[in-house]
Amino acid sequence: MLISILFRFASADVFNIPGVFQVSGAPSTNGQTCFTVHSAEGGWAAIGVGSTAMSGSDIYLGWKNQGTVMVGNFKGTGHSQPSPNSVQNAQQVTLMETAPSWSKLSFSFCRPTAIASNGKSITATQNYIYASSPDQPSGSSVNTLSYSQHASNYGNFNANFAASSNTTTTGSVSASILRVGDDFTYQQVVALHGIMMFVAWMIAPFLGIFCARYLKDVLGHNWYRLHVFFMAFACGLVTLLSFALIFLYSQPPHFNENHKVVGLIILLCLLFQIMLGYISNARWHPNRKTIPWWDKAHWWFGRGLFLLAIFNVYLGIDLYGDNYGSSSFGLYSFIVVLVLGVIMMIVGQFTYGQVHHVADK
């Protein structure tokens, strides 16, 4: 329930990222500390008390529910969505200062300065985190709230909101190269990245390998054209575009999770694999008697890369579920396509068998 109070900030500590995010805080006269948050992103905004990361933070999050701003208290749990605090320490109050023109979401709340359990006390200079997102949450209460992971605007800072020192700290964000917005959210960027990588590594390689392994005699030279289409374009080019998409819209650091590190390794290996394929084609001769080592290197390096990419697609689906709450459709699609792909390869092996172009065949 929104409480109207007479207390207003006479002097307060302020953390300000100009035009992006601002939080003001000061103690009141009744054993509470009051905060006002302004965010340039209108989906949700939050601050966390007592940590430099989500895990262990006492989080206070504001969001819009059918046009009405609400505030809730949550427990930071790492990379998964924070869970509602069993004791809701946040008491939403009428906005305590005029919202700046750039703010799309502003709210004020008070909470006890000292908390014995189910929260973190406000002390002298301590750690805080902040985050925001343009994605609109769903849910009308803290217990039903579901919201997407923050995009570019997040970080940590130090402040002394336990004293009215009227100190302003100016911060900055390591912004992404391209910015998301209300029309193209970060969750949509991640979903598009995932769909593109799914096509590039769960569909295209099965088809490209099938053509190269089994259909040389059936298709004639067209097997090679199809192999190049599936592997260089449907896999290679789509991978490059998908990698560029997520890189341009993500805030640094870019390679701080297993999925991202493995993805970079796959990209570099893909470029090497394409080079091996080019060498194999350029050095092919119709009168050759045996399979040269560079052809075999292309086969086995490609197989290993394919398996690594399948594993990384799974990591990506799992990471999406951690950040956005559900990845069931992606996981089911992964299992179905993987099973169908394996069945297709088995059928090809027994129907056509592996075909090599050597002179004595």
Automatic annotation (TrEMBL):
Main localisation: membrane
Subcellular location per the Swiss-Prot or TrEMBL entry: Membrane
Cellular component, GO, one term: membrane
Domain Cytochrome b561: 154-356
Keyword Electron transport in annotation: yes
Signal peptide: none
Residue ranges crossing the lipid bilayer per the database entry: 190-215, 227-249, 261-279, 300-317, 329-352
Pfam families, sorted: CDH-cyt, Cytochrom_B561
Domain of life of the source: Eukaryota
UniProt xrefs under Gene3D superfamilies: 1.20.120.1770
Key words, A-Z: Electron transport, Membrane, Transmembrane, Transmembrane helix, Transport
The keyword Disulfide bond belongs to this UniProt entry's keyword annotation: no
PANTHER family linked: CYTOCHROME B561 DOMAIN-CONTAINING PROTEIN, DEHYDROGENASE, PUTATIVE (AFU_ORTHOLOGUE AFUA_8G05805)-RELATED
Annotated protein name in UniProt: DOMON domain-containing protein frrs1L
Protein source organism: Boothiomyces macroporosus
